[in-house]
Amino acid sequence: MKQCRQTELERDLTALLGRDNCLFSLEDLWTYSFDASKQRALPDAVVFPLCTDQVCAVMAYAHEHGIPVVPRGAGSGLTGGAVPAHGGIVMVLERMNKIIELDTDNLCAVVETGVVTALLQAAAAKAGLFYPPDPASQAFSTIGGNIAENAGGMRAAKYGVTKQYVLGLEVVLPNGDLIKLGSKCIKDVAGYSMTELFVGSEGTFGIITQAIVKLVTLPETVKTLAVCFGSIQDAGRVVPQVLKSGVVPCTLEFIDAACLKAVLDVDPLHGCEHQIHGSTKAMLLIEVDGSAQVVEKDAQTILDICRESNMLSFRLAQTAKERESLWQVRRSIHGAIMGLCPKWLEEDISVPPASIPLMLEKLQDLAQKENLRILCFGHYADGNIHLSASEQEAPLTAERARTVKGLIFSETVKLGGRIAAEHGIGTAKKEYLGLNLDDATLNFAMKLKQMVDPKGLLNPGKVFPEKVWNSAYGLD
Ligand SMILES: Cc1cc2nc3c(=O)[nH]c(=O)nc-3n(C[C@H](O)[C@H](O)[C@H](O)COP(=O)(O)OP(=O)(O)OC[C@H]3O[C@@H](n4cnc5c(N)ncnc54)[C@H](O)[C@@H]3O)c2cc1C
After folding, report:
1. Is 111 within 8 Å of 99 (Cβ atoms)?
2. How many CB atoms lie within 10 A of CB 147?
3. Alpha carbon of 215 to those of 124, 183, 280: distances in Å?
4. Which ipTM was obtained for this model?
5. N or C terminus of the chain: which is more exposed, having fewer CB within 10 Å?
6. What is the pLDDT at residue 272?
C-alpha cells in the first residue's frame, strides 16, 4: 500500500477502534500474516473489534475505500483461510468472546463468535449441557472459525458437525450492513433458510459476529475401546457392520500402523504399549456414550462384531486415566509424525464410509508406485481420512507435492469422495475445487459471492480457482 494511503488507513482505523485495538508495526503484521497452514502474506493493518458496531464501521470503511478484509479467529485453519492473500485488513474476532446467554430451558447458547470452543463446552458442561462439535483444535479455535469452516471432529459420527448446531447467526456483510438469520426456534421457515449459507463460507460472505448454537444434554457415561487388527481390511469390515447393527458410536477413529509406531517411538512409555498387539496394522478407537445400560450393551455389540472381523486384541478402558492414555495416542499423532519429517503434504479427504478400506488400499498402492511414505488416521465412521505424505527420507518438493495431491484427489473423486472433509478449501485446495464441483455449480457459487460481495473485498483469493475469480471480478 502506498505510504500516504497507509498513513490514512492507520489514522482512520485508529479513529474507528481506538489505538489499543489496532496494530500497524511490521513485526505485528508478520504475526498475523499466517495461519496453521503456514502460508504467508502480509496485511496492511490488524484490527480487534470489541463489538458488532465496530465491525460494521470497519466493513463500511473498507468497502468505501476498496480495501480487502480478512476475518480471523485463532488462526488455526489448515488451508490458509485467514491468510491475507491480497493484503488489506486482518480483522481478529478474539476480543468479541462473550457467552451472552446459556439458555438451559431452550437448550441453546447465544455467543459472540470470538469465544474459544472449549470454553463454550466447559460453560455448557457446568450447566449439565453439552456442545458436541469437537475439532482437535477446540482448546484454541473459535466458534466463528468453526462455523466459517463447518468444523468437524471425532464425535461427528454420532453428533454431526458444526452446521448441525447453528440455529442462528448475526452477520456483518461486506458493505457494513448487519443481518440476523435464524432464531432459537427449532422450526423456523420464516423466509429462506439463509443461516446455512454462511456455515462453511470460509469468511468470504460476511463477518459472523454472533451465533445461536444448539446444546444437548450431557451423556450419562462413556466407554472407550481400543481394538487392534492385523489388516486394514479387517478393521474396515467392522465399520459398516457396527453402523448396520443400530449402534451409533460417539467416535470411531482409526490409526494405521505407521502412525501408531510414530507415537509409541516418541513415547514408548505412553502407558498403552502393552495394550497394543505387536502385529497391529490398524487400530480402532471406539467410544460409546449414553445411559450406563445402553453403553454396556453397545460396547458388547461392537466387541462381538470386532471378534467376527478377526480382531487381534482389545482393551476396554477401566479408568478415566486409562481412557485418557488411549486418547493420548490419538492426539499425539500430529506431533509424533512431525519428528519423522519436518514438512508433510497433509490432506483431509472424505469418501463414503464403506469405501474407506478401498481408499486406504489405493493410498498404499500410490505410496508403493511413487515410492512415498503415506501415513493415515482419521474418523472412520464418517469417511474422513487425514493423511500425511512425503518422500521416503525427505519432504516433497513443491512440484512433486502438487502431483501427489492431484493423484490423491483423483482417487478420492473416483470413489465418490470429496477433496475437503472438514478443513475447508482456502487457498490450499482452490485450484482443485473443480474436481468436486462442475462448472455450473462453481459458477452458481461465484454468482452468490458476487451478489454478497460485488467488489470482491471480503477474504479475496480464497475458495475459487484463480481463473474463475479473475474472470468474475474482471481481473483477466
Ligand atoms: C492441531 C490442529 C487440529 C485441528 N483439528 C481439527 C479437527 O479435528 N476438525 C476440524 O474441522 N478442524 C481442525 N483443525 C482446523 C481448524 O482448527 C479449524 O478449521 C477451526 O475451525 C478454525 O478456527 P479458528 O478460530 O482458528 O479460525 P481461523 O483459522 O482464524 O479462520 C478460519 C476461517 O474462518 C474465517 N473466519 C474466522 N472467524 C470468522 C468469523 N467470525 N466470521 C467469518 N469468518 C471467520 C477465516 O477468514 C478463515 O477463512 C485443526 C487445526 C489444528 C492446528
Report:
1. yes
2. 26
3. 8, 14, 38
4. 0.99
5. C
6. 59
Query: 422 pLDDT exceeds 60?
Result: yes
Q: Is the CB of 153 under 6 A from ligand 1?
A: yes
142: helix, strand or coil? strand
Q: Which CATH architecture has domain 221-335?
A: 2-Layer Sandwich (3.30)
Atom 41, ligand 1: which residue's CA is nearest?
144
SS3 state of residue 40 = strand
Query: Could you read off the pLDDT of 190-237 as tens digits, one per residue?
Result: 999 999 999 999 999 999 999 999 999 999 999 999 999 999 889 988
Task: Write out pLDDT tens, residues 53-62.
Answer: 999 999 999 9
Instruction: Say if CB 396 and CB 389 are below 8 A apart.
Output: yes
Cβ(72) to ligand 1 under 6 A?
yes
Pocket of ligand 1 contains residue 71 by CB under 6 Å: yes
Q: Could you tell me which CATH number the domain at 341-430 has?
A: 3.30.70.2740
CATH numeric code, 99-217? 3.30.465.10
Specify the CATH number for 3-92; select among 3.30.43.10, 3.90.1300.10, 3.40.1390.10, 3.40.50.300: 3.30.43.10
Contact 112 CB / ligand 1 (< 6 Å): no
Sign of the alpha-carbon torsion through 200, 243, 139, 388: negative
Question: pLDDT tens digits, residue range 127-141?
Answer: 999 999 999 999 999
